[in-house]
Protein backbone atom coordinates (compact mmCIF):
# COMPACT_ATOMS: atom_id res chain seq x y z
CA UNK A 1 0.00 0.00 0.00
CA UNK A 2 1.06 3.57 -0.75
CA UNK A 3 -0.52 6.89 0.18
CA UNK A 4 -0.62 10.36 -1.31
CA UNK A 5 -1.89 13.69 0.02
CA UNK A 6 -3.80 15.44 -2.77
CA UNK A 7 -4.50 19.16 -3.25
CA UNK A 8 -8.13 18.43 -2.31
CA UNK A 9 -6.97 17.54 1.19
CA UNK A 10 -7.73 13.87 0.66
CA UNK A 11 -5.09 11.34 1.63
CA UNK A 12 -5.63 8.34 -0.62
CA UNK A 13 -4.38 4.84 0.08
CA UNK A 14 -3.78 2.87 -3.10
CA UNK A 15 -2.08 -0.15 -4.64
CA UNK A 16 0.01 0.28 -7.79
CA UNK A 17 0.67 -3.16 -9.23
CA UNK A 18 2.21 -4.77 -12.27
CA UNK A 19 4.61 -3.60 -14.99
CA UNK A 20 4.58 -0.12 -16.45
CA UNK A 21 2.92 -0.16 -19.89
CA UNK A 22 1.80 3.11 -21.40
CA UNK A 23 -1.86 2.64 -20.55
CA UNK A 24 -2.62 1.79 -16.89
CA UNK A 25 -5.93 0.52 -15.56
CA UNK A 26 -7.53 2.48 -12.69
CA UNK A 27 -10.35 0.68 -10.85
CA UNK A 28 -12.93 2.40 -8.63
CA UNK A 29 -14.77 0.47 -5.93
CA UNK A 30 -18.43 0.82 -5.01
CA UNK A 31 -20.32 1.62 -1.81
CA UNK A 32 -19.76 0.66 0.95
CA UNK A 33 -16.59 -1.19 -0.01
CA UNK A 34 -12.85 -0.59 -0.34
CA UNK A 35 -10.09 -1.33 -2.81
CA UNK A 36 -9.97 -5.02 -1.81
CA UNK A 37 -13.19 -5.34 -3.82
CA UNK A 38 -10.97 -5.43 -6.92
CA UNK A 39 -8.50 -7.97 -5.51
CA UNK A 40 -9.13 -10.72 -8.08
CA UNK A 41 -8.84 -8.28 -10.98
CA UNK A 42 -5.75 -6.49 -9.64
CA UNK A 43 -3.96 -9.81 -9.18
CA UNK A 44 -5.02 -11.25 -12.53
CA UNK A 45 -4.35 -8.17 -14.65
CA UNK A 46 -1.01 -7.29 -13.06
CA UNK A 47 0.14 -10.88 -13.52
CA UNK A 48 -0.78 -10.61 -17.19
CA UNK A 49 1.20 -7.49 -18.00
CA UNK A 50 -1.10 -4.63 -17.03
CA UNK A 51 -0.37 -1.84 -14.61
CA UNK A 52 -3.31 -1.66 -12.19
CA UNK A 53 -3.95 1.23 -9.79
CA UNK A 54 -6.61 0.58 -7.15
CA UNK A 55 -7.37 3.32 -4.60
CA UNK A 56 -9.60 3.49 -1.58
CA UNK A 57 -12.01 6.33 -2.27
CA UNK A 58 -11.93 9.29 0.07
CA UNK A 59 -13.67 8.33 3.30
CA UNK A 60 -13.42 4.58 2.63
CA UNK A 61 -10.89 1.93 3.59
CA UNK A 62 -7.63 3.60 4.56
CA UNK A 63 -8.29 6.90 2.77
CA UNK A 64 -9.23 10.06 4.63
CA UNK A 65 -10.01 13.70 3.95
CA UNK A 66 -12.77 16.29 3.99
CA UNK A 67 -16.25 14.87 3.48
CA UNK A 68 -17.16 14.74 -0.20
CA UNK A 69 -19.94 17.07 -1.32
CA UNK A 70 -20.62 15.47 -4.67
CA UNK A 71 -19.28 12.78 -6.98
CA UNK A 72 -17.13 15.44 -8.63
CA UNK A 73 -14.95 15.39 -5.50
CA UNK A 74 -14.20 11.71 -6.07
CA UNK A 75 -13.46 12.42 -9.74
CA UNK A 76 -11.06 15.19 -8.75
CA UNK A 77 -9.27 12.77 -6.41
CA UNK A 78 -8.87 10.21 -9.20
CA UNK A 79 -7.40 12.82 -11.53
CA UNK A 80 -5.12 13.99 -8.74
CA UNK A 81 -3.91 10.45 -8.09
CA UNK A 82 -3.20 9.98 -11.80
CA UNK A 83 -1.27 13.25 -11.82
CA UNK A 84 0.76 12.13 -8.80
CA UNK A 85 1.65 8.90 -10.59
CA UNK A 86 2.54 10.68 -13.83
CA UNK A 87 -0.32 9.03 -15.69
CA UNK A 88 -1.87 10.97 -18.54
CA UNK A 89 -4.49 8.69 -20.11
CA UNK A 90 -5.79 5.51 -18.55
CA UNK A 91 -8.43 2.82 -18.70
CA UNK A 92 -11.02 3.65 -16.05
CA UNK A 93 -13.36 1.10 -14.53
CA UNK A 94 -15.94 1.23 -11.78
CA UNK A 95 -18.74 -0.82 -10.27
CA UNK A 96 -22.03 0.52 -8.85
CA UNK A 97 -21.25 3.89 -7.22
CA UNK A 98 -17.78 3.43 -8.65
CA UNK A 99 -19.35 3.31 -12.10
CA UNK A 100 -21.14 6.59 -11.44
CA UNK A 101 -17.86 8.12 -10.29
CA UNK A 102 -16.39 6.87 -13.56
CA UNK A 103 -19.19 8.63 -15.45
CA UNK A 104 -18.49 11.82 -13.52
CA UNK A 105 -14.78 11.53 -14.34
CA UNK A 106 -15.56 11.05 -18.02
CA UNK A 107 -17.69 14.18 -17.86
CA UNK A 108 -15.03 16.24 -16.06
CA UNK A 109 -11.84 14.84 -17.61
CA UNK A 110 -12.77 13.28 -20.97
CA UNK A 111 -9.27 13.76 -22.38
CA UNK A 112 -7.83 11.42 -19.72
CA UNK A 113 -9.94 8.38 -20.62
CA UNK A 114 -8.69 5.76 -23.08
CA UNK A 115 -11.26 3.02 -22.40
CA UNK A 116 -14.03 2.30 -19.89
CA UNK A 117 -15.48 -0.45 -17.76
CA UNK A 118 -19.00 0.21 -16.43
CA UNK A 119 -20.09 -2.64 -14.17
CA UNK A 120 -23.46 -3.00 -12.41
CA UNK A 121 -24.24 0.69 -12.52
CA UNK A 122 -26.74 3.12 -14.02
CA UNK A 123 -26.71 6.60 -15.50
CA UNK A 124 -29.99 8.21 -14.43
CA UNK A 125 -30.17 10.88 -11.72
CA UNK A 126 -31.66 10.05 -8.35
CA UNK A 127 -35.44 10.08 -8.01
CA UNK A 128 -37.10 12.22 -5.36
CA UNK A 129 -37.88 9.06 -3.40
CA UNK A 130 -34.30 7.88 -3.80
CA UNK A 131 -32.93 11.15 -2.47
CA UNK A 132 -34.98 10.73 0.69
CA UNK A 133 -33.91 7.09 1.06
CA UNK A 134 -30.21 7.83 0.63
CA UNK A 135 -30.25 10.71 3.08
CA UNK A 136 -32.15 8.61 5.62
CA UNK A 137 -29.56 5.86 5.19
CA UNK A 138 -26.80 8.43 5.79
CA UNK A 139 -28.52 9.55 9.00
CA UNK A 140 -28.90 5.95 10.08
CA UNK A 141 -25.27 4.87 9.63
CA UNK A 142 -24.07 7.97 11.46
CA UNK A 143 -26.38 7.18 14.37
CA UNK A 144 -26.06 3.38 14.47
CA UNK A 145 -22.82 2.48 12.68
CA UNK A 146 -22.43 0.17 9.72
CA UNK A 147 -23.14 -3.30 11.11
CA UNK A 148 -26.93 -3.54 10.86
CA UNK A 149 -26.95 -1.59 7.57
CA UNK A 150 -24.35 -3.94 6.10
CA UNK A 151 -26.12 -7.08 7.26
CA UNK A 152 -29.39 -5.91 5.68
CA UNK A 153 -27.68 -5.13 2.36
CA UNK A 154 -25.72 -8.37 2.12
CA UNK A 155 -28.47 -10.63 0.65
CA UNK A 156 -29.05 -8.07 -2.10
CA UNK A 157 -25.37 -7.53 -2.86
CA UNK A 158 -24.74 -11.11 -3.98
CA UNK A 159 -26.95 -13.60 -5.75
CA UNK A 160 -28.78 -16.29 -3.75
CA UNK A 161 -26.43 -18.88 -5.24
CA UNK A 162 -23.36 -16.95 -4.08
CA UNK A 163 -24.89 -16.42 -0.65
CA UNK A 164 -25.49 -20.17 -0.24
CA UNK A 165 -22.49 -21.66 -1.98
CA UNK A 166 -19.59 -19.23 -1.72
CA UNK A 167 -19.05 -18.25 1.91
CA UNK A 168 -15.60 -16.83 1.19
CA UNK A 169 -17.00 -14.17 -1.14
CA UNK A 170 -20.03 -13.55 1.06
CA UNK A 171 -17.86 -13.04 4.14
CA UNK A 172 -15.51 -10.71 2.25
CA UNK A 173 -18.41 -8.55 1.09
CA UNK A 174 -19.89 -8.43 4.58
CA UNK A 175 -16.54 -7.55 6.14
CA UNK A 176 -15.94 -4.69 3.70
CA UNK A 177 -19.36 -3.23 4.40
CA UNK A 178 -19.15 -3.59 8.17
CA UNK A 179 -15.68 -2.03 8.23
CA UNK A 180 -16.55 0.98 6.06
CA UNK A 181 -16.16 4.24 8.02
CA UNK A 182 -19.66 5.53 8.77
CA UNK A 183 -18.72 9.17 8.13
CA UNK A 184 -17.33 8.41 4.68
CA UNK A 185 -20.25 6.16 3.76
CA UNK A 186 -22.76 8.81 4.88
CA UNK A 187 -21.04 11.54 2.88
CA UNK A 188 -21.03 9.35 -0.21
CA UNK A 189 -24.71 8.51 0.21
CA UNK A 190 -25.55 12.23 0.29
CA UNK A 191 -23.28 12.86 -2.70
CA UNK A 192 -25.00 10.15 -4.72
CA UNK A 193 -28.38 11.66 -3.91
CA UNK A 194 -27.24 14.83 -5.70
CA UNK A 195 -25.66 13.20 -8.74
CA UNK A 196 -26.52 14.56 -12.20
CA UNK A 197 -27.98 12.76 -15.20
CA UNK A 198 -25.10 11.12 -17.07
CA UNK A 199 -27.07 9.93 -20.08
CA UNK A 200 -26.25 12.84 -22.40
CA UNK A 201 -22.53 12.76 -21.60
CA UNK A 202 -22.40 9.02 -22.21
CA UNK A 203 -23.77 9.58 -25.71
CA UNK A 204 -20.57 11.55 -26.40
CA UNK A 205 -18.26 8.71 -25.34
CA UNK A 206 -16.26 7.32 -28.26
CA UNK A 207 -13.62 5.24 -26.45
CA UNK A 208 -13.94 1.44 -26.20
CA UNK A 209 -16.33 0.58 -23.38
CA UNK A 210 -17.20 -2.69 -21.67
CA UNK A 211 -20.56 -2.83 -19.91
CA UNK A 212 -20.84 -5.76 -17.50
CA UNK A 213 -23.64 -6.87 -15.19
CA UNK A 214 -24.66 -9.87 -13.12
CA UNK A 215 -27.73 -11.65 -14.42
CA UNK A 216 -29.31 -11.62 -10.93
CA UNK A 217 -28.36 -8.08 -9.88
CA UNK A 218 -31.21 -6.62 -7.80
CA UNK A 219 -29.79 -3.10 -7.52
CA UNK A 220 -28.88 -2.53 -11.18
CA UNK A 221 -30.66 -5.16 -13.26
CA UNK A 222 -29.73 -6.16 -16.77
CA UNK A 223 -32.08 -3.53 -18.21
CA UNK A 224 -29.88 -0.79 -16.73
CA UNK A 225 -26.82 -2.28 -18.41
CA UNK A 226 -28.69 -2.54 -21.69
CA UNK A 227 -29.45 1.18 -21.52
CA UNK A 228 -25.77 1.97 -20.95
CA UNK A 229 -24.92 -0.22 -23.92
CA UNK A 230 -27.39 1.74 -26.06
CA UNK A 231 -26.07 5.11 -24.87
CA UNK A 232 -22.40 4.34 -25.55
CA UNK A 233 -22.11 3.52 -29.23
CA UNK A 234 -18.62 2.04 -28.85
CA UNK A 235 -19.62 -0.40 -26.11
CA UNK A 236 -20.04 -4.13 -25.75
CA UNK A 237 -22.34 -5.74 -23.19
CA UNK A 238 -21.58 -8.85 -21.15
CA UNK A 239 -24.03 -10.50 -18.72
CA UNK A 240 -22.41 -12.78 -16.15
CA UNK A 241 -24.77 -15.64 -15.45
CA UNK A 242 -25.63 -16.40 -11.84
CA UNK A 243 -23.97 -13.31 -10.37
CA UNK A 244 -25.63 -10.55 -8.38
CA UNK A 245 -24.38 -7.00 -7.85
CA UNK A 246 -20.70 -8.00 -7.55
CA UNK A 247 -19.89 -10.25 -10.52
CA UNK A 248 -16.19 -9.37 -10.28
CA UNK A 249 -16.14 -11.31 -6.98
CA UNK A 250 -18.98 -13.78 -7.50
CA UNK A 251 -17.78 -14.90 -10.93
CA UNK A 252 -14.19 -13.69 -10.73
CA UNK A 253 -12.70 -16.07 -13.31
CA UNK A 254 -15.31 -15.23 -15.95
CA UNK A 255 -15.11 -11.52 -15.17
CA UNK A 256 -11.32 -11.58 -15.42
CA UNK A 257 -11.44 -13.40 -18.73
CA UNK A 258 -13.93 -10.94 -20.22
CA UNK A 259 -12.15 -7.84 -18.93
CA UNK A 260 -8.71 -9.19 -19.81
CA UNK A 261 -9.74 -9.92 -23.40
CA UNK A 262 -11.27 -6.44 -23.66
CA UNK A 263 -8.02 -4.84 -22.49
CA UNK A 264 -5.90 -6.97 -24.78
CA UNK A 265 -7.71 -5.81 -27.87
CA UNK A 266 -5.53 -3.49 -29.90
CA UNK A 267 -7.93 -0.58 -29.55
CA UNK A 268 -7.98 -0.76 -25.74
CA UNK A 269 -4.31 -1.27 -24.94
CA UNK A 270 -1.46 0.83 -26.32
CA UNK A 271 1.82 -0.93 -25.77
TrEMBL record:
Gene3D superfamilies: alpha/beta hydrolase. Keywords: Hydrolase. GO terms for molecular function: hydrolase activity. SUPFAM superfamilies: alpha/beta-Hydrolases. It comes from the Bacteria. Residues 24-251 form the AB hydrolase-1 domain. PANTHER family: MONOACYLGLYCEROL LIPASE. This is Alpha/beta fold hydrolase. It comes from Amycolatopsis rubida.
Amino acid sequence: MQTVLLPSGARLAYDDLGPRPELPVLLVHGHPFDRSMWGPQAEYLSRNGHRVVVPDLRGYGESTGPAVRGLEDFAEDLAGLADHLGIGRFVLGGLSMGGQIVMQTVRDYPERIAALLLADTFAEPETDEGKVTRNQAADRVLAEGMTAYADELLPKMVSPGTFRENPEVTEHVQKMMRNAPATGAAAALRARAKRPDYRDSLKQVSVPTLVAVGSEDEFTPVADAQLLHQLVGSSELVVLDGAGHLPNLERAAEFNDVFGRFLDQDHAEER
